[in-house]
Amino acid sequence: MKTSIRKIGNSAGAILPAQLLKKLHLRLGDDVSIKEDGMRIVIEPAKTRRKYKLQDLVAQCNPNAPVADDLQAWDNAPTAGEELL
């Protein structure tokens, strides 16, 4: 596949053909990672971290799960300052 470098505002860019975007499952607005490898430019889909909501994570917790001994000891330890429980 061949494309050319084009002026885009104060920068430059290359147009990615639709068939390549489709093959790589990329859409407009997706983030990509660009790096130099010798005399090559490597463009890869960016590895994004999944965003979690607290309520979704808490919903996965088992309230009946056993508490680890070290955490139980921490919970039962006497206060050492002016903590409020």
From TrEMBL:
InterPro entries documented for this protein: Antitox_PemI-like, SpoVT-AbrB_dom, SpoVT-AbrB_sf
Pfam families: MazE_antitoxin (PF04014)
Domain of life: Bacteria
Protein name: AbrB/MazE/SpoVT family DNA-binding domain-containing protein
Keywords: DNA-binding
One annotated GO molecular function: DNA binding
UniProt cross-references to Gene3D superfamilies, sorted A to Z: 2.10.260.10
Domain SpoVT-AbrB: 6-51
